[in-house]
Amino acid sequence: RRFARATEAYTVMANAERKRVYEASGSEGLYRRLAGPQFQDPMRDAYKLELGFKTGHFEMEFGFREGQKKSTGNVHHNLKIPLLGFYQGFTMEVSIVRSELCTMCNGTGAAQDAEMLTCHKCTGTGKLASSSHWRSKRARRERREGGFDQTVTLGCRQCLGTGKLPSEPCPGCKGERTKDGQTTVKVVVEPGVLEGHSYTFKEQAEQAPDAVSGDVVLHVGAEEHEDFEREGHDLVCRRNITLAQALLGFKMVVTHLDGREIEIERNEVTKPGQDHVVPGLGMPIHGRQGEFGNLVVKLNI
């Protein structure tokens, strides 16, 4: 594991773009940027890592294993809905912009009578390799030898890893194989669902040739409400009271999230920081029909 971490550090530091992606998204983001989702991890072979440290040369190949099922990867989106939607339930249709296979060429990128020729960029291998030598800043400053050689192999972007290019591109997608499109999914938020709940729509993400579409995963959260906050199953609001009201008691009306007027009455001394709790007037408890959390009125003297 130490070998893997050290190798990853050397690989990232040797390239400014990789370093930027790594700092923003970590290892997963780096692999996704370089080679696409669900690719094999070239740092998991302990023997190759140890051999690399002994010889000073690392070979890293980003790509799908032979016979591995390709996927375009899952797509995650955050949705904000009104807090009332979590209380009463909420239904919405969401349009997902995505790449879709060109219907004119069925994702081949070729015109109807075109021939498939060997890709000139990768010479038909579907892969491109780049080599570099890494030395620490101190070693470069002191002009010392040493460091590590590394070879990184990526899928060819010219032919998308197929090793073939059409003699004449498809007029519909201009050889890109995919076109911009969109799909619509329906999100049904049931009363009481907690914030952060995920809704997964299978194989509705990007389309790509010879690959299974990933899933679209939507995470729901609540828009900020002017009067109420949600704390788990409780509905929380804040009210100011005078010192006289704190000592002698008071009555007040709180307009509930759904518009009902709730009368609050206290006939005892209210201490600083004390809350007034009304059981059963909070958020619905999802999966437990007829059960609700508390309405919590936070009192400020």
Short note summarizing the structure:
With 301 residues, the protein is α+β, with helices and mostly antiparallel strands. It has helices at 2-13, 16-35, 46-55, 83-88, 137-141, 243-248; strands spanning 57-61, 75-81, 90-101, 116-118, 127-134, 148-155, 164-166, 178-189, 198-201, 216-222, 229-231, 234-240, 250-255, 261-266, 275-278, 295-300.
Structure characteristics:
301 residues, alpha+beta, 3-stranded mixed sheet, 6 helices, 34% strand
Helix/strand/pairing class, anyone?
A: alpha+beta
Tell me the helix content.
10-25%
Number of continuous helical runs? 6
Strand share of the residues? 25-35%
Number of strands: 16
Largest sheet geometry: 4 strands, mixed
Low-confidence stretches: 31-62
**Radius of gyration using CA atoms only:** 29 Å
In whole angstroms, the N-to-C terminal distance is 57 Å
- For the largest beta sheet, what order do the strands appear in spatially? 11-12-16-15
